[in-house]
């Protein structure tokens, strides 16, 4: 991560100039690292790169595909966002040059950069931004255009003050708006595209964004080729470059076999391979390839426990589970040292995350003691039983995380030693969505992979108030967590919110509600050494807007 | 669906009589199949390693005396996984064949024996099944009933129903029209008697070698379904699944080659036995 | 062309149409057994985080909560008027999607069929002319061996050998000539085995005939004997087996295209299956049925040209489904 510090640092100085609700964060950010600026003219122009990807998703309707792990890469180059959120979760200006909010966080005023246009010639003005806000919030469900889930549900309306100023109104305080505008779902699309029916929007070549690249050609399930937009000069200051991109074209090519993606990059047939098998990373590094394992802002990879289901209604059993998992062994066996031990149930790079690794120490003796106390007796076959029932844990491997099955198999070995009987079920994406739900009757543990932008939304997701997801099936039973949730929601400054978030993290881990496995790296990049200067944003997507490719090294 | 009646492949095969002792390749095939069957019945006799729990520190070791096929990405002995996986691979192929033979055989028997509109309706149904490529059919069926090995076996069996139905039907018609059956009719034998005494034994003679052949074929289809991840999830160790997992680790090629070779050897042996059965018939 | 022929042809066409229509309905029924639908499954992606209420709203807006029979009726009436509908996954017209990828699959399938034929004839020729003891036994084992190797293993080995080790083709450009060739080889191997098996058996049968012995006695050279006297009558069962395996080309393309990263009908099916994209699956299944039915129709018409001993439209009824070689077939 250190090699990117030089690219990120201009952000931090620029942040100071942003009159935003995030001055506190900006101040924090300036403390990090010495500043160094990269001169644009030192960079090499031109070059074409090929990015091998395991899927190109389903539909290309912008609203439905922007959050895709795969299509998000393309949208990130084709479309801009109002706000830029970097890998540390810092929001900085992009198409919105600056913003203000009222004291209750219910009205926001966005001041737009002038002279920005979509690739179809339409200006990126107040009208265009309002059209985008409206479709993010509501979608057009009849046509199959979904709303953007993370867009605040408290959205009321937006109005144009003048051509370059938009005022956004919310029904309730919405502290998370600004970071959400930098989330991968919030891409700015030409109002002409938005007005098209869904079947037209599904044709990628007919969609226009204002990004540094435009779609040159595409074929469903095969490839997307992007070509540089020469008049682009409104890049996010945070990445240290605002002019046109350096690389001429970027081709996203679908190669579904992981081994073929890697071998193609190794043999110089392609420049980047997405989602490599973690096992191969160390040898690839030895061969001189760049390996990037950026972490997104969100929850760590772990298990949300269903507290309604016996025996996980017993806090001792949950705590035994927390102590019975050897997280270091997961990293040593399944992953590489690029993965980090979880220190909380949210990723350590999220602003507001605090270190609770003392609660996540591997201690099989403690786990066995807790199980003994809870009345689970080890039988001759090593499996603990109570009232004739074996100590059973069913794990449903998350189909969205490549190494999930291997980790479950390893956890099954670890828990087996202290008397657990672990059953692993691995479903495909469709069946998983059908059968595995938070708090489901046959789902003692739900394996979480979820990104978010603002830690303030976490408490709401964990509990069931206001359309929350009730991850631990607590309903209204746990007053401590509900109290913390309400206090976090009503906090009006980040300083006031921080200790509450810390208390929430400690409580959830102590109670064994959430069993972290490791910090999540959902996107793994293996890259040719000739390609340099890419930037990873807050949701771990690689942007090649700032990247260059040298001829040597091939 | 076709105008004319040519002999089936089975009958085109050379009809030279074999000596009492099967040729060497057949003996080797029988020995190998026996070994695989033994693996699936008592896997514990063949390996001291645990197929599920490995030693994470010993991951991805090459083949050696301690680990004949090496170890996988979680430090599990691959030979143990192949041996313990044979039960599932053999059973699933068996299920597929049984479904194909029973369902297909029944359809063919009923159609051929009853004739008339029953035959017409069943023939159309079989035509539909036959018109959909076998593997496509298997993929669609396994999607419909859910992804696991038993379902993959059922799907494979369903995709073979049409072939068995056709062969059975033609054999039934042939036998029914044979002089000794007509004679039996004339001498007042009951339909059931004729069916069980004459038609079924005669027809099954050509269906059984086909069933053996399909056993090998089913292993491949089920492995292919596993390759597309429509089979059991890990830590199951069906051979197809082992190959499919192994392909993600190209640096450690034995993870693909060992289970692939066992699969190929098994299918080859079964095919050889089927051929021998046909020619010694 | 007598009237009996026309009646027969009409009957055959009607049968074919029924088979295709039933295949379409069959797919609908099988896929409809499934709980859920592609839209719900996409919405349930945990990254989306939609609540069940929101999902229900969106599904209802798409008309997916209508009774199954109503959905079947609207789908079927669309099919009859040539409208294959919109893909539930990509929201694009199915016809456009299929037309986009059909050429790639056609190229793969025809080259594979051609390679399979060449391979089968070469192997079969060898079994007739090579010395009985050594070469023959080996060649006779070939079809069996070809049928025993999983298709994807062949593909993976070819890619690593010729794509990476020898650098003959770029894996990321699967439509290049060499890449297409090796994909076709992968697909051709099991098909060629089936053809070779039937061809060898038929050649052996013909070789035992008296007229061959006579020809051999006259000192006819083996190649001439093979092409002149053996190949032509033996090609009859070959035509049958080709007509039967033509569907397997499409089935096999599912794996071959996935392994080689080609975008074609097969890879579309794989994606549609995992997302239950019914309109695409129905379109592909009916397409496969059309190809299969046509191939068999053509095979029937070609027969009399190949073997004068066959009389077209004899007294026998055209219903003799079990007449075809029921040999092995591989995925």
UniProtKB/TrEMBL annotation, chain A:
Gene3D superfamilies tied to this protein: Dipeptide-binding Protein, Domain 3 (3.10.105.10), Periplasmic binding protein-like II (3.40.190.10)
Keywords: Signal
GO biological process: peptide transport
Subcellular location(s) of the protein: Periplasm
Annotated Gene Ontology cellular component terms: ATP-binding cassette (ABC) transporter complex; outer membrane-bounded periplasmic space
Cleavable signal peptide: 1-35
Gene Ontology molecular function, alphabetical: peptide transmembrane transporter activity
InterPro entries, alphabetized: Peptide/Ni-bd, SBP_5, SBP_5_dom, TAT_signal
Family annotation (SUPFAM superfamilies): Periplasmic binding protein-like II (SSF53850)
Family that this chain belongs to: Belongs to the bacterial solute-binding protein 5 family.
Protein name: ABC transporter substrate-binding protein
Source taxonomy: Bacteria, Pseudomonadati, Pseudomonadota, Alphaproteobacteria, Hyphomicrobiales
From TrEMBL, chain B:
Chief location bin: membrane
Localisation: Cell membrane
Topology of this chain in the membrane: Multi-pass membrane protein
Cited CDD domains: TM_PBP2
InterPro entries linked: BP-dependent_transpt_permease, MetI-like, MetI-like_sf
Keywords: Cell membrane, Membrane, Peptide transport, Protein transport, Transmembrane, Transmembrane helix, Transport
Regions that span the bilayer: 21-42, 93-118, 125-144, 150-168, 207-231, 251-270
GO CC terms in record: plasma membrane
Record-level GO BP terms: peptide transport; protein transport; transmembrane transport
PROSITE patterns, alphabetized: ABC_TM1
Pfam families xref list: BPD_transp_1
Ranges for domain ABC transmembrane type-1: 86-274
Domain of life, per lineage: Bacteria
Family, similarity comment: Belongs to the binding-protein-dependent transport system permease family.
Record protein name field: ABC transporter permease
Record organism: Ferranicluibacter rubi
Biological classification of the source: Bacteria, Pseudomonadati, Pseudomonadota, Alphaproteobacteria, Hyphomicrobiales
TrEMBL record, chain C:
Main location: membrane
Cellular localisation: Cell membrane
Topology in the lipid bilayer: Multi-pass membrane protein
Record's keyword terms, sorted: Cell membrane, Membrane, Transmembrane, Transmembrane helix, Transport
GO biological process, one term: transmembrane transport
Bilayer-spanning residue ranges: 12-34, 106-126, 138-164, 176-196, 236-260, 280-306
CDD domains reported in the protein's UniProt record: TM_PBP2 (cd06261)
ABC transmembrane type-1 domain segment(s): 102-303
Pfam families: BPD_transp_1, BPD_transp_1_N
One Gene Ontology term, aspect cellular component: plasma membrane
Superkingdom of this protein's organism: Bacteria
InterPro entries per record: BPD_transp_1_N, MetI-like, MetI-like_sf
Family classification: Belongs to the binding-protein-dependent transport system permease family.
Protein name: ABC transporter permease
Organism of derivation: Ferranicluibacter rubi
């Amino acid at each position: 991560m250190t090699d990117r510090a030089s690219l990120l640092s201009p952000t931090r100085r620029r942040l100071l100039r942003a009159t935003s609700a995030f001055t506190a964060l900006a101040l924090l950010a300036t403390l990090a690292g010495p500043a160094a600026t990269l001169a644009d003219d030192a960079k090499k122009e031109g070059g074409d790169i090929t990015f091998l990807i395991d899927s190109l998703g389903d539909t290309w309707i912008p609203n439905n595909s922007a959050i895709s792990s795969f299509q998000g890469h393309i949208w990130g180059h084709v479309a801009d966002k109002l706000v830029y959120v970097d890998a540390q979760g810092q929001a900085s200006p992009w198409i919105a040059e600056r913003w203000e909010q009222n004291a209750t966080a219910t009205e926001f005023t966005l001041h737009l950069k002038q002279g920005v246009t979509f690739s179809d010639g339409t200006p990126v003005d107040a009208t265009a931004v309002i059209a985008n806000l409206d479709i993010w919030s509501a979608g057009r469900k009849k046509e199959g255009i979904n709303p953007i889930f993370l867009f605040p549900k408290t959205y009321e309306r937006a109005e144009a003050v003048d051509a370059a100023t938009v005022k956004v109104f919310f029904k309730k305080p919405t502290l998370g708006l600004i970071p959400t505008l930098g989330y991968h779902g919030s891409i700015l699309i030409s109002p002409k595209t938005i007005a098209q029916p869904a079947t037209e929007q599904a044709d990628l070549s007919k969609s226009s964004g204002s990004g540094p690249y435009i779609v040159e050609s595409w074929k469903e399930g095969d490839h997307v080729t992007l070509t540089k937009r020469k008049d682009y000069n409104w890049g996010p200051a945070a990445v240290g470059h605002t002019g046109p991109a350096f690389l001429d074209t970027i081709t996203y090519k679908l190669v579904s076999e992981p081994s073929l993606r890697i071998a193609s990059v190794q043999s110089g047939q392609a420049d980047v391979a997405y989602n490599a098998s973690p096992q191969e990373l160390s040898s690839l590094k030895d061969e001189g390839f760049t390996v990037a394992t950026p972490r997104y802002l969100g929850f760590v990879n772990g298990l949300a426990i269903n507290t309604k289901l016996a025996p996980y209604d017993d806090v001792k059993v949950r705590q035994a589970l927390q102590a019975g998992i050897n997280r270091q062994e997961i990293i040593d066996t399944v992953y590489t040292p690029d993965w980090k031990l979880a220190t909380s149930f949210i990723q350590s790079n999220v602003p507001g995350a605090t270190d609770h690794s003392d609660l996540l120490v591997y201690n099989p003796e403690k786990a066995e003691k807790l199980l003994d106390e809870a009345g689970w007796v080890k039988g001759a076959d090593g499996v603990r039983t109570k009232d004739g029932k074996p100590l059973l844990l069913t794990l449903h491997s998350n189909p969205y995380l490549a190494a999930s099955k291997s980790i479950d198999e390893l956890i099954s070995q670890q828990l087996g030693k202290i008397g657990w009987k672990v059953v692993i079920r691995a479903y495909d994406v469709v069946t998983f969505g059908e059968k595995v739900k938070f708090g489901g009757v046959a789902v003692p543990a739900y394996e979480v992979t979820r990104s978010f932008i603002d830690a303030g939304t976490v408490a709401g997701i964990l509990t069931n108030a206001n359309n929350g997801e009730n991850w631990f099936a607590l309903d209204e039973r746990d007053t401590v967590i509900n109290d913390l949730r309400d206090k976090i929601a009503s906090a009006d400054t980040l300083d006031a919110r921080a200790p509450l978030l810390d208390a929430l993290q400690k409580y959830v881990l102590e109670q064994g509600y959430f069993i972290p496995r490791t910090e999540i790296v959902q996107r793994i990049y293996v890259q040719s050494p000739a390609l340099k200067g890419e930037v990873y944003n807050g949701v771990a997507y690689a942007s090649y807007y700032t990247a260059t490719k040298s001829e040597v090294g091939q | 669906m076709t105008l004319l009646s040519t002999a089936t492949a089975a009958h085109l095969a050379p009809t030279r009589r074999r000596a009492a002792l099967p040729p060497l390749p057949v003996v080797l095939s029988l020995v190998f199949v026996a070994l695989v069957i033994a693996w699936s019945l008592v896997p514990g006799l063949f390996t001291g390693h645990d197929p599920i729990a490995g030693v994470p520190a010993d991951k991805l070791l090459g083949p050696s005396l301690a680990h004949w096929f090496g170890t996988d990405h979680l430090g599990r002995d691959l030979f143990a996984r192949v041996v313990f996986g044979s039960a599932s691979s053999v059973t699933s192929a068996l299920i597929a064949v049984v479904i194909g033979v029973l369902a297909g055989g029944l359809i063919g028997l009923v159609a051929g024996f009853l004739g008339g509109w029953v035959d017409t309706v069943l023939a159309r149904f079989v035509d539909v099944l036959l018109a959909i490529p076998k593997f496509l059919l298997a993929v669609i069926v396994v999607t419909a009933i859910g992804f696991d090995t038993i379902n993959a076996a059922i799907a494979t069996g369903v995709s073979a129903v049409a072939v068995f139905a056709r062969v059975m039907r033609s054999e039934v018609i042939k036998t029914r029209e044979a002089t000794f059956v007509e004679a039996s009719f004339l001498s007042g034998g009951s339909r059931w008697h004729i069916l069980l005494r004459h038609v079924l034994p005669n027809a099954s003679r050509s269906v059984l070698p086909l069933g053996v052949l399909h056993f090998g074929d089913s292993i491949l289809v089920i492995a292919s379904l596993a390759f597309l991840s429509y089979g059991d999830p890990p830590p199951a160790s069906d051979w197809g699944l082992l190959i499919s997992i192994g392909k993600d680790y190209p640096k450690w090629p034995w993870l693909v080659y060992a289970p692939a070779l066992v699969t190929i050897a098994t299918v080859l042996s079964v095919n050889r036995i089927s051929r021998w059965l046909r020619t010694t018939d | 062309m007598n009237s009996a022929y026309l009646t027969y042809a009409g009957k055959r066409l009607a049968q074919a149409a029924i088979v295709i229509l039933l295949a379409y309905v069959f797919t609908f029924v099988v896929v409809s057994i499934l709980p859920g639908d592609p839209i719900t499954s996409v919405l349930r992606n945990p990254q989306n985080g939609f609540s069940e209420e929101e999902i229900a709203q969106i599904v209802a807006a798409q008309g997916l909560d209508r009774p199954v029979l109503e959905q079947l009726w609207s789908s079927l009436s669309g099919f009859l008027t040539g409208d294959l509908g919109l893909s539930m996954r990509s929201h694009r017209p199915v016809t456009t999607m299929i037309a986009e990828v059909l050429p790639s699959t056609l190229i793969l399938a025809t080259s594979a069929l051609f390679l399979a034929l060449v391979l089968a004839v070469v192997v079969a020729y060898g079994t007739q002319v090579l010395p009985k003891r050594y070469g023959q036994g080996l060649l006779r084992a070939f079809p069996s061996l070809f049928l025993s190797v999983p298709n994807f293993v062949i593909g993976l080995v070819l890619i690593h050998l010729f794509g990476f080790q020898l650098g003959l083709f770029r894996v990321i450009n699967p439509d290049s000539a060499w890449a297409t060739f090796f994909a076709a080889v992968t697909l051709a191997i099991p098909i060629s085995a089936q053809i070779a098996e039937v061809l060898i058996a038929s050649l052996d049968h013909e070789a035992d005939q008296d007229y061959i012995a006579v020809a051999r006695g006259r000192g006819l050279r083996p190649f001439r004997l093979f092409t002149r006297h053996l190949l032509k009558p033996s090609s009859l069962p070959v035509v049958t087996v080709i007509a039967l395996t033509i569907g397997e080309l499409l089935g096999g393309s599912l794996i071959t295209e996935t392994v080689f990263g080609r975008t074609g009908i097969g890879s579309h099916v794989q994606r549609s299956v995992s997302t239950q994209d019914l309109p695409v699956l129905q379109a592909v299944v009916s397409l496969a049925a059309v190809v299969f039915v046509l191939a068999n129709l053509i095979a029937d018409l070609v027969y009399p040209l190949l073997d004068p001993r066959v009389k077209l439209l004899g007294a026998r009824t055209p219903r003799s489904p079990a007449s075809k070689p029921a040999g092995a077939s591989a995925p």
